[in-house]
Design goal:
With 703 residues, the chain is an alpha+beta fold. It has 5 domains: 224 residues, Growth Hormone, Chain: A; 42 residues; 188 residues, Growth Hormone, Chain: A (Up-down Bundle); 90 residues, Immunoglobulin-like (Sandwich), CATH 2.60.40; 95 residues, Sandwich (Immunoglobulin-like), CATH 2.60.40. It is built from 18 helices and 20 strands. Strands 8-5-11-12 form a 4-stranded mixed beta sheet, with no helix packed on it. A hairpin with a 4-residue loop joins strand 17 and strand 18. The protein is elongated and about 120 Å long. Keywords: Cell membrane, Glycoprotein, Membrane, Peptide transport, Protein transport, Symport, Transmembrane, Transmembrane helix, Transport. It is found in: Apical cell membrane; Membrane. This is Solute carrier family 15 member 1.
Length: 703
């Protein structure tokens, strides 16, 4: 059955691919954040495991191609590996259920190793599934067309690529929103089970849709894997050359010609063409090493930025939304580049060959990482400085109605603080702090004190009948993660009060005491409620931005009106997330000229029956690229993130120059011409020897 001139079966295949890509990219969009915030791994381990997983996803296609071509056939390979894939996604969703091991119901898992073990099992099954079916689905779609349907087949591949990007775009928007919800039986947490569960459900839908179309598919029987033949041919040539290494044997034109004793001329000629392209692939993994850091390092960079896009639903604009920039730009850029940029270049009489496009793509990716480094330098300037082990930081808050002067003895100059005002944190060497002197007008007080090193402290001072001093330990050692805010309260009223902000209770605070810091999600305002002995007041808090810490001082509560002061302990993120858009834009331009051209170049230079070998080689470059990230990030030991970005940019630039030299010496071939030449030679052989084909078939069967 057909529809609009297309086999009806391909619609099932396109829907299947959309659901599968939604499932994969949706899970991947929140994966590095799941590692960091749920499994509590640091940035480096999260990045390392993320890239190991991506590398596995691009190594397994070789396995999938072997199973499909040599054993099960494409249809059964897709079905069986999709079942493995769906189970993997379901296990991943179960692994992220907080209540699974949270026996004491405190909101954190009691047994992290259980969650880690389940996650790793899930990820291995997903890597097997997604990688295994990757080379089969597009080829299976191609099999559905008749020989004379070339136009429809090429249109199908365009629709197929669009469905990949549509699935990717929707999932990278939707799963971070799902993750931002709060869910849980005993305590409310970020909803990872939903963020992983929806991709699992989509994968199940993908499998069901694919099976429904079963009766309509044209199923080609497995014909043996060409990769195996190519490998055997190369292996035999090397072995045979090694055996005949003495000078008495005449040299042959190409080292692969040493396979001619066992393999036919056609296979050897085709293998030469394939190896020529595979040799050019050697520098390409470096591009993927940079490209795939969008999902790891760049996502983590976004968590330290200001994500407030001043829309009503600020939760939507959380750090992970940046990942949607790439698929959105791809959908816009591919047609623009094809219809506008390339024709303009041709009009300028510039011969923009495929290999030149790939070189430009590599250069642009290096440029994108320079842009990322510049953004990182700006972010680093805004990060707070915390005290070293032998240092102390002190901030003074004046809770009194008059201006105060505080000096730390023996030799620090006095610090003046306005009424109801506060200072920034001041750094001191702990050993130099022995006593302090506080003055309010003609009142003064001196007292000795000792502080533990490596900590931040707040000194609250107040003038009542006598001067009151109170030391508060600020138990914050780093900037709040993920754009969240830390808030605490100081009660500056004469009696005790009960304080709540939003859904969070700070409990009962006696006069001149402080609460502990509580975590609030960034970019929102909450209602502050203060209940005293005889009065209740409420007010809406200010917006705390993203990644800040504040001390809120309750100065007055009468007639339902609340009077509070805000003292900034850690400044909110000030570098806006929009500054990441240039690096995403440059990297997307790089992807358009690199990735699309690379596949097109591989197809144009590959013999008709070896396209799968080059497809596997191309996917292998992605896997190796992710392994490079592990090696470089592990070996560089750079403490500054911007320096690591510059290192990757420099490495890619060096590789880009090497590739440009290799491309300069590459001569383009037309595989159909080479194959026509071989056909011609075979015809001549048949004329000379009518039994040529029978002998050839006999030799093949012996092989």
């Amino acid at each position: 059955p057909s529809c609009f001139g297309y086999p009806l079966s391909i619609f099932f295949i396109v829907i299947n691919e959309f659901c599968e890509r939604f499932s994969y990219y949706g899970m991947r969009a929140v994966l590095v954040l799941y590692f960091k915030y749920f499994l509590q791994w640091d940035d480096n381990l999260s990045t390392a495991i993320y890239h190991t997983f991506v590398a596995l996803c691009y190594l397994t296609p070789i396995l999938g191609a072997l199973i499909a071509d040599s054993w099960l056939g494409k249809f059964m390979t897709i079905v069986s590996l999709s079942i493995v894939y769906t189970i993997g996604q379901a296990v991943m969703s179960i692994s992220s259920i907080n209540d699974l091991t949270d026996h004491n119901r405190d909101g954190t898992p009691d047994s992290i190793p259980v969650h880690i073990a389940l996650s790793m099992i899930g990820l291995i099954l997903i890597a097997l599934g997604t990688g295994g079916i990757k080379p089969c689905v597009s080829a299976f779609g191609g099999d559905q067309f008749e020989e004379d349907q070339d136009k429809q087949r090429s249109r199908f591949f365009s629709i197929f690529y669009l469905s990949i990007n549509a699935g990717s775009l929707l999932s990278t928007i939707i799963t971070p929103i799902l993750r931002a919800q709060e869910c849980g039986i005993h305590s409310k947490q970020r909803c990872y089970p939903l963020a992983f569960g929806v991709p699992a459900a989509l994968m199940a839908v993908s499998l069901v849709v694919f099976i429904i179309g079963s009766g309509m598919y044209k199923k080609v029987k497995p014909q043996g894997n060409i990769m195996v033949q190519v490998s055997k041919c190369i292996g035999f040539a090397i072995k045979n050359r090694f055996r005949h290494r003495s000078k008495e044997f005449p040299k042959r034109e190409h080292w692969l010609d040493w396979a001619s004793e066992k393999y036919d001329k056609r296979l050897i000629a085709q293998t030469k063409m394939v190896l020529k392209v595979l040799f050019l692939y050697i520098p390409l993994p470096m591009f993927w090493a940079l490209f795939d850091q969008q999902g790891s390092r760049w996502t983590l960079q976004a968590t330290t930025m200001d994500g407030n896009f001043t829309l009503k639903n600020t939760e939507f604009f959380s750090p992970y939304v940046q990942q949607t920039v790439n698929p959105i730009l791809i959908i816009i850029m591919v047609p623009v580049v094809d219809a506008v940029i390339y024709p303009l270049i041709r009009k300028c009489k510039i011969n923009f060959t495929p290999l030149r496009k790939i070189t430009v793509g590599m250069f642009l990716a290096a440029l994108a990482f320079v842009a990322a480094a510049l953004v990182q330098v700006q972010i680093d300037k805004t990060l707070p400085v915390f005290p070293a082990a032998e240092e102390s930081q002190i901030k003074i808050i004046n809770l009194g109605t008059r201006n105060a002067s505080v000096s730390f003895q023996p030799d620090q100059p006095p610090v003046n603080i306005m009424s109801m005002g506060s200072t920034d944190y001041m750094m001191f060497e702990t050993s130099q702090l022995r006593s302090l002197s506080v003055t309010f007008g003609n009142q003064s007080k001196t007292e000795a004190f000792t502080l533990p090193g490596g900590k931040r402290h707040t000194l609250a001072v107040k003038n009542e009948n006598e001067i009151v001093t109170k030391w508060l330990l600020d138990n914050v050692t780093s900037k709040p993660e993920e754009g969240n805010n830390l808030i605490r309260f100081i009660n500056n009223l004469p009696g005790p009060v009960n304080v709540t902000m939003g859904e969070t209770s700070f409990g009962n605070l006696p006069s001149l005491s402080d609460s502990s810091y509580e975590l609030f999600s960034g970019g929102r305002k909450d209602n502050i409620m203060v209940i005293g002995d005889s009065t209740t007041c409420s007010d809406t808090s200010r917006s705390f931005g993203f990644g800040s810490a504040y001390t809120v001082i309750i100065n007055g509560c009468s007639g339902g009106v609340l009077n509070v002061e805000y003292s900034e302990d850690i400044a909110p993120n000030t570098v806006h997330m929009a500054w990441q858009i240039p690096q995403y834009f440059i990297l997307t331009c790089a992807e358009v000229v690199f990735s699309v051209t690379g596949l097109e170049f591989s197809y144009s230079q590959a013999p008709s029956n070896m396209k799968a070998v080059l497809q596997a080689g191309w996917l292998l470059t992605v896997a190796v690229g992710n392994i490079i990230v592990l090696i470089v990030a592990g070996a560089s030991k750079l403490s500054e993130q911007w320096a690591e970005y510059v290192l990757f940019a420099a490495l890619l630039l060096a590789v880009c120059i090497i590739f440009a030299v290799m491309a300069y010496f590459y001569t383009y071939v037309d595989p159909s011409e080479v194959e026509a030449q071989l056909d011609e030679e075979e015809k001549n052989q048949v004329k000379k020897d009518p039994n040529f084909h029978e002998k050839q078939a006999e030799a093949d069967s012996q092989l």
